[in-house]
Amino acid sequence: MSSLKANSEALRLRAAFEKAGATPVDCAVLQPAETLLDLYGEDIRTRAYVTQDPARGEQMLRPDFTVPVVQMHMADGAEPARYTYSGVVFRRQEENPERDSEYLQTGYEVFDRTDPEAADAEVFAIFAETLGGEGLRAATGDMGILTAAVSSLKTSPQRRAALLRHIWRPRRFRALMDRYSGRSAVPQTRKALLESSDPLDIGVPVIGLRSEVEIADRIEALRADAAEPPISQDQVDMIDEVLKVSETCPYALANLRDIAVDMPEMEQAVDRFARRCDALAARGVNVDTLDFEASYGRTSMEYYDGFVFGFYSEARPDLPPVASGGRYDALTQRLGQGKSIPAVGGVIRPDILLQVREAQS
Question: Binding positions for L-histidine (predicted)?
Answer without folding.
Answer: 64-66, 91, 105, 109, 298, 303-304
